[in-house]
Design goal:
Blueprint: H1 4-15, H2 21-28, H3 32-40, H4 62-72, H5 83-93, H6 102-117, E1 133-144, E2 150-160, E3 165-171, H7 176-190, E4 192-193, E5 196-199, E6 206-209, E7 215-217, H8 219-228, E8 231-234, H9 244-257, H10 267-281, H11 293-303, E9 305-306, E10 316-321, E11 327-330, E12 333-336, E13 345-350, E14 354-358, E15 364-369, E16 377-378, H12 382-390, H13 399-403, H14 406-413, H15 417-431, H16 436-448, H17 454-465, H18 490-498
Parallel strand pairs: 1-5, 5-8, 12-16
Antiparallel strand pairs: 1-2, 2-3, 4-9, 6-7, 10-13, 11-12, 13-14, 14-15
Length: 504
């Protein structure tokens, strides 16, 4: 397959500049079948799980080679590295890490040079913003989560300078999955794609900044661009004013759509409501054109590109190896899988809001909500509790027993083997529908009522989760007379039987 840069170049010549296929063949050196193939291609989704054979013995040394070639851009042309010279330097400086032959280095250097030296059309920010052009940027905001805590998050805004229309979507971070998912959501809401979008130099889009407007884009961003056929332009370093419209919009939305601080329980639901909020906001008059923003936006839409009908799936796929406890680390946070996958090779597949752990056959082992932060952990107890219930006597020697909440540790620690088994089965039953916090509350509730067997704990759990009002012990007032105790005299009943009072 051609590089995304080559594909993008071919499609631009044909679709934007009206260059004939014959002329494209002459400029690129590719055969008719190759040019025709990529002109007809509409789906630029990442190939399904391409990482199976993606590991190269040269990978540890690629950053070194990249740096040498990047430094060469500042050197005289006749004093730049050849592939052979690079191979010689690797032999001299990294003899213990070099595990490939000259040919492998030659192939990589050739492709990297093509990436670095290929001329890119310089982006120029016009003074006049034509219809159909957009600007994109992230901004911070705060919200209240379902625990009542104030949390910081990111808001992606896409604005349209011609009309002053804008749309925004919220995410936990500003990684590539968040950037692309937000843009995709907005594209699909509009049913159109801006022909040109101006960005800051986001690391999720720009892998390397060159001189002037020269940019080396990330592979995922280039693929997304090619799929939706828009052109990307990037501001000069420290020149955010070049996309002043979206800078203003980020602040405007925060002041008008996020005040008071909203309570957000579900990002997806809230994002849908934001589209309604933005459409309502577009009913106001444009600050200078004295026409409704929504009316002007219709002109924007007319100049935009049609939406690619092929859905684009946004995710990152990376190989991992689980630790002794079947957990993996991704983006500085840990995720559980299943005990049987301890010390096994797996894959991490991550979208903007989900993380899936896959086995080597790409089957889902476990699904988590994606964590945003550092040093956080998402733990799904079910597979571990299920395993421990089958081996209750070995439970106390596992890390997972040590990680259980204190009240469950104390409860299970006092039980015999059968009590441990029943307790774990009860815990497993609760965790199938609710979280560990609910299981903690159920155990505490049962103990507070003087019962400690597994069945009673489950009954307490069902009471807590059914919505039934909990009955409180009756408190008698001090003026209530105490009743004397009564002792049954069974002898009196015997006398009545002898007298024939009770007849069978």
């Amino acid at each position: 397959m051609l590089s995304m840069d080559d594909i993008k170049y071919i499609k631009r010549l044909y679709e934007r500049e009206g260059v004939s296929i014959r002329e494209i063949m002459r400029r690129t050196g590719y055969h008719y079948e190759t040019v025709r193939k990529y002109l007809d291609m509409e789906d630029f989704n990442e190939p399904s799980y391409p990482l199976r054979n993606s590991v190269s013995l040269l990978d540890p040394l690629k950053p070194v080679i990249d740096q040498w070639l990047t430094d060469d851009l500042k050197a005289p042309r006749k004093q730049r590295h050849t592939a052979k010279r690079i191979y010689q330097r690797l032999q001299e400086e990294y003899p213990d890490q070099l595990e490939v032959k000259l040919r492998t280095v030659q192939y990589y250097v050739s492709s990297k040079k093509k990436e670095l030296y290929q001329s890119q059309q310089k982006a120029r920010l016009p003074l006049y913003h034509p219809p159909g052009e957009a600007q994109v940027d992230f901004g911070h905001f705060s919200y209240i989560n379902n625990s009542g805590d104030m949390v910081d998050a990111l808001k992606l805004t896409m604005s349209f300078p011609y009309s002053n229309q804008s749309y925004c979507q919220i995410f936990g971070g500003e990684n590539q999955q968040c950037l692309l998912q937000g843009m995709k959501n907005i594209f699909e809401h509009m049913g159109k794609v801006p022909y040109r979008i101006v960005f800051d130099n986001l690391s999720s889009a720009v892998a390397h900044m060159g001189k002037g407007h020269e940019r080396t884009l990330t592979e995922g961003f280039k693929r997304f661009m090619t799929h939706y056929k828009f052109e990307a332009a990037f501001c000069n370093g420290s020149a955010g004013w070049e996309k002043g419209n979206v800078e203003n919009k980020v602040g405007y939305e925060r002041r008008n759509m996020f005040v008071p601080v909203p309570t957000i329980l579900d990002f997806e639901v809230f994002n849908q409501s934001l589209f309604e909020t933005c459409e309502k906001d577009a009913q106001r008059e444009h600050y200078s054109k004295k026409v409704a923003i929504g009316t002007l936006f219709q002109t924007d839409l007319q100049e935009m590109l049609p939406l690619n009908k092929t859905p684009y799936e946004i995710y990152v796929l990376e190989p991992r190896k689980t630790d002794n406890y079947a957990k993996v680390t991704f983006d500085n946070n840990r995720y559980s899988s299943s005990p049987k996958y301890a010390r096994e090779n797996v894959y991490i597949k991550a979208s903007s809001d989900k993380v899936w752990i896959l086995n080597t056959s790409y089957e889902v082992i476990m699904e988590h909500d994606r964590l945003y932060g550092n040093g956080l952990e998402s733990m799904n107890w079910l597979p571990y509790i299920n395993l421990m219930s089958k081996r209750p006597t070995a439970m106390k020697y596992t890390e997972f027993y040590q990680q259980l909440p204190d009240n469950w540790q104390k409860y299970l620690g006092k039980q015999n083997a059968e009590g441990k088994r029943k307790g774990l089965v009860s815990l497993y039953t609760m965790l199938q529908k609710h979280d560990m916090r609910t299981a903690e509350d159920a155990l505490a509730f049962a103990i507070s009522n003087g019962v400690k067997d597994a069945d009673s704990i489950l009954a307490a759990y069902r009471t807590l989760t059914s919505g039934m009002q909990q009955m409180q012990p009756m408190q008698l007032e001090g003026n209530v007379l105490s009743m004397p105790s009564f002792t049954t005299d069974n002898h009196k009943y015997d006398m009545l039987f002898e007298q024939g009072v009770f007849v069978r």
